[in-house]
Amino acid sequence: MRNLLVAATFIGLAASASAAVAEVYPPSNARAADVPNDGGGAIEVSWEPSPSREIAGYRLTRFSEGAPDGELVAELPPVDTAFTDDAESESPPVDGTPYSYEVSAISPDGEIAGAPRTAQVTSSPSWIHAGRIANLAALLVFVAMFFVLVYRGKRGKPLFIRPIDALDDMDDAVGRAAEMGQPVFYAPGLHSITQPATVASVSLLRRVAERSARLHTPVKVPNYDPLTWPVAQEVVRQAFDRAGRPEEFNPDDISYLTSRSFTYAAAVAGIMVRERTASNFLIGHFYSESLILAETGVSTGALQIGGTDSVAQLPFFITTCDRTMIGEELFAAAALVGDDPVSRSTVKAHDWFKALIMAMILGGAAACALADTGILESLLDLFGVNDPAQAAASVIGWVRGGLR
Amino acid sequence: MKGGIGYRLPFALMLVLGIFFAAQYYIPHPVVQGPKEMMLQWKQPLNAFIIFLALGGLVVMHARKVIRRQKRWGYSVVTLVAMAAMIFAGMVWGTGEGTVFSDWFKNLVTPIEATMFSLLAFFVASAAFRAFRARTTGATILLISAGVVMLGLIPAVEDAIPPLGEVANFLLKYPNTAAKRAIMIGVALGAISVALKTILGIDRTILGRDER
Amino acid sequence: MTPSRFFDRISRLDRRWIFLAILLAVALPFLTPLEFRAKPSEQTREFDRALDAALGTGKPIMVDVDFGPQTMAELEPLLLGVMHRIFESETKAIFFTLMPDAAAPTRQYLSEMAKEYGLEYGVDYVFLGYASSFAYTMYGMGTSIEKYFHEDDRGTPLGEIPIMKGVERLADVSAVVNMASNSFPKFWIQYGVAPFGFDLLVGCTAVNATDLYLQTGQLKGLLAGGRAGAEYEALLVEKGVVSQTGDATRGLGSQSLALIAILLFIVMGNAGYFLGRGARGPGRDERGGRP
Questions:
Q1: What is A2-114's CATH superfamily?
Q2: In contact, C25 and C257? CB cutoff 8 Å
Q3: Pick from A177, A330, B64, B177: most CB atoms within 10 A?
Q4: The pTM is what?
């Protein structure tokens, strides 16, 4: 009898042990939500993993009015805890249609344990990308500053803008070339006319070309970009027309060379050495060949005025050019060259916005420093804020997020 | 704005498309993203036409030099023959691995361009010799920091004097990066300003025009 | 010759002597048994950790090769190092380029790697070729890769390539590695990372080093210049991925000697400037003009 009891206990224990191995538990906390900031047609489903020791994977089933018995959306590996039901699915969700999802764990034996269905959710496209609102706000602030200053400029309000040395020296450089009886050289950079640095450069080319035309001095403009070339040609032609010297304009002086940077550098170096250009203008966006251009100009004894928005090439220009427009000065010079009040006032917008950025950086750094030393928390406590530690953390989080 | 539709149309297009492409960054809705995707794809075939413009310009310029026997017209013959040969080889035998085009590129273009790039080493030395003189306070600070960074980049020196490597890294990581950031912020604002002026028609440089 | 005249002449040394000195400094390490080794820096290890994290996700990795013959000496070791890491970890890789010059070298590198690791084209790796309008392509790939690369480099439609299954846009890969000799990494951040948010690792020339993006976390890893290439080669040897260092380490000697030569010339130039003032006269610079 006693042996029968022991045997029965062992059999019962073995049965329950094997049942525990075979039993599969469903995942928990399954939830579905419309994917934010997208064009619609996407729902994100997420869940906590199944507590079962071993599962073969998960099955995702979608329910809707058109599919009350459910349709299989995906079968996923056991490591996954989220899935986006979107255009990549066999039958993507339709905007405006309510769906609910069931996430089921599948055991190695094929047993299925489904979590409770998620609440119904509909996908919809977003009109505004919430993650880019700070960016949009910054852009709108700058645009507002721009328009306010253009309005003030049109009204004739005086604006202080510090002089840009390179702009003042441009006329002297052309004068030098005229005195020496040698041509002026102008490289508008290696970017297309669709890029801001080249647009700014071509604005400055207009001034150089006009001055050269008045002084009967040829201006050589070899181009890297085939789109910039006809624009540069037209600008120089107009400059000669305006100076009353259309017959002196030579279209071959404004040429297209090549769209390979070091080939361009080799060709330009050849032009500088052969033509003995007296004044070189290297203004625009350049790559690593900029030092070859500038150093060759130095070797021919030319006076050089450089300007680039390319941060990596600035050190080369500063060491080889007599005057350099650093970064933003290039755009400011292009705006100032026309000497009309509207363009001058747009330069001021940079200054106002930079002042705002500086104030935010200093303010943010101060707030973070106050937080790190505990002073911010003490201040908030002094003002009677509930839970000052939490409030301080929220302020710092807001500052860091806003600055980013 | 004076002038007929041919004059005003580019400005109208720039205004509409400029505002559209700025706005599309903030609006994920398919009503905006659909046309945007379509227009982005148009850019690629447009590039093919730009190549024809470049090719045409080069051929006309060099052919004119040859016909008129202008100075150094022989080099124009070389340019035209080389251009024709590469185009012919690429079109007839393809541009893949082992083709004539690929061999010419590997054995002619590559060494020539690598040689041009290596000129930079010599020019950096001569520029540094000429420019790094302690003429003013600013130039002296530049000279000292450049010297520290250069020494810190030499592995043997960095191993022998570890603090030098740390100072060099500090200079690169903080003052240098801060200055770069400041310049880039200014450049970005300048670029937005140029773009706004172009979109609004205040600056017509992009069309080769001057009148405001 | 008085000492001041001597130093004045030093300050106006003919550039050709400088060129000769640089030539010797660069050539000497190749002609002598001088060996220079780099120790992997923290930044290099950080790049490798970030690459490791990407390779461990199980998703394919994308590599954008944007350098041409001019900068091959500086960037080829970086790219080869990354390729060794990718293929040694048996991760699938999708290569492409936004610069026409880079297509031919990339094909060559891939064919060498395929032989070394026994890779199958289309399954273990694919080369999508060149797409123009880099900024538009970068921005467009965030929503659809196929619209900008309709076929691969061999003319096969993307839908027929096994490795491209499930890879519709940038979010479907583990990371993008950009090897660039130009400012493309900056554009990747503007048009790729900012709007779509994915991991970007960059290998670039020393002069274009974009450390500032590394500090802000917009880049996950950065290798800049020949020295970083030598450090990465040393790290790969340390990890047993490759058995010996390569061209970047070989070039380190030239780089070091050239830097020493430049420093010596700077010292000479300043000595000539200050000690040669007597010969020039008061208030005049080396060109005879006023500074």
A1: Immunoglobulins (2.60.40.10)
A2: yes
A3: A330
A4: 0.84
